[in-house]
From TrEMBL:
<dbReference type="InterPro" id="IPR016155">
    <property type="entry name" value="Mopterin_synth/thiamin_S_b"/>
</dbReference>
<dbReference type="InterPro" id="IPR012675">
    <property type="entry name" value="Beta-grasp_dom_sf"/>
</dbReference>
<dbReference type="InterPro" id="IPR003749">
    <property type="entry name" value="ThiS/MoaD-like"/>
</dbReference>
<dbReference type="Pfam" id="PF02597">
    <property type="entry name" value="ThiS"/>
</dbReference>
<dbReference type="InterPro" id="IPR010038">
    <property type="entry name" value="MoaD_arc-typ"/>
</dbReference>
<dbReference type="InterPro" id="IPR052045">
    <property type="entry name" value="Sulfur_Carrier/Prot_Modifier"/>
</dbReference>
<protein>
    <submittedName>
        <fullName>Ubiquitin-like small modifier protein 1</fullName>
    </submittedName>
</protein>
<dbReference type="InterPro" id="IPR054834">
    <property type="entry name" value="SAMP1_3"/>
</dbReference>
Length: 90
């Protein structure tokens, strides 16, 4: 599986696309933990008191996992995972 990272998350990790060891049947939470173990600098930006911060969007196939089973959402082959921090512009 791969995570697509946007804005400052990509800068912190050093790349926009990060491969992780998660496989079909694992959860989004498992895949996120793999990402954070490989790139610990992301942990403080993504988590708040051990949970995904309210302002971070976790997407699976373009849909927020909050509308599925949250971090317990099961992964399937070919899933696309993404992390979006808040972005503002003018």
């Amino acid at each position: 599986m791969e995570w697509k990272l946007f804005a400052d998350l990509a800068e912190i990790a050093g790349d926009r696309v990060i491969a992780v060891d998660a496989e079909p049947g694992d959860t989004v939470g498992d895949a996120l933990e793999d990402l954070l173990e490989a790139h610990p600098a992301l942990r403080d930006r993504v988590l708040d008191d051990g949970e995904v911060a309210d302002h971070i969007n976790v997407l699976r196939n373009g849909s927020n996992v909050h509308h599925e089973d949250g971090m317990g959402t099961r992964l399937e082959a070919g899933d696309e995972l993404a992390l979006f921090p808040p972005v503002s512009g003018g």
